[in-house]
Amino acid sequence: MQFDAELLLLAMAPVFLACIGWEAWHLKRTRPGAQLYSWRDTLCNTALALMHQAADKLAWLAIIPVYTFFYDHYRITTWPPSWGSFVVLFVAQDLLYYVFHRCSHRVRWLWAAHVVHHSSERMNFSTAFRQSLMYPVAGMWLFWIPLAVLGFAPKVIVAIVLINLGFQFFVHTQAIGKLGWLEYVFNTPSIHRVHHARNDRYIDRNYAGVLVIWDRLFGSYVEEDLGEAPVYGIVESLHTYNPLKATFHEWASLAADFASVSGWRNKLRALFAPPAWAADYHARRAAGSSVPRAGSTEDSSEAIRAKQDHTAAFQTPRRP
Questions:
Q1: Which intervals of the chain are annotated as region Disordered (predicted)?
Q2: Is 20 helix (H, G, I), strand (E, B) or coil?
Q3: How many C-beta atoms surround the C-beta of residue 3 within 10 A?
Q4: What span, in angstroms and rounded, lies between the C-alpha atoms of 158 and 58?
């Protein structure tokens, strides 16, 4: 089966815009005063989307040759165009997306790009547009190399990545409730609302792209509790609608922390520890506490717990 995913997504653009318009009208009518949409927030999301798309166009020019190298020299088989090969590619890429997404919440270098998507304190269809132009720098593309080794052509890899991301537009909404049995298999708005929340009960859960089976299999699934509404945004809130600040604020913080901490272990933590390490470090500095040194046993319980989560990889994560 062959198709042009970029043309497909371009054709879907009116659908995406129509969904945003419908949701804004519906939520204003059904939840007046909630202010679930904001012009400044939506325009920021749109600017971030345009910046992301431009960066992606340029990045693929450099990345496709890398996939071609692995495809030409290291592929273990060759998949002919068919529905069967599409299903295998779809499932394999969705699993790799889960790995990428979970790593992006546990490794600060990756989080520096992914944080852009989570930094709005609103949750609506326009939030799906809120992406970072820094994903190529962070290394998102590295996670798709196994697909080339499995024998999928580079352009097909790009297509399935775009399709996966296109699907995820539809889970960024508060206008749709739970969807029954579908939530045992697919990512849904209810499942993804949990992922965007910063409540202790919800934070760092539900990493699904399209299939939620990976969260259920690897122990990262949490159901939305109707008695506890999600609180959206990030732990260290970003109070700006400037798309450039939204894009680079965590990179600037990462660089500043790397320069200020002492000891090579802490410098590596500033780059690659879970984001909770940085939040703990910033809280210490704000309180005037001593900076944790390499090998120090003075880390807070939250930082220790974050490091334990990081080393546990895909074991069952901590329960709130």
A1: 287-320
A2: helix
A3: 12
A4: 13
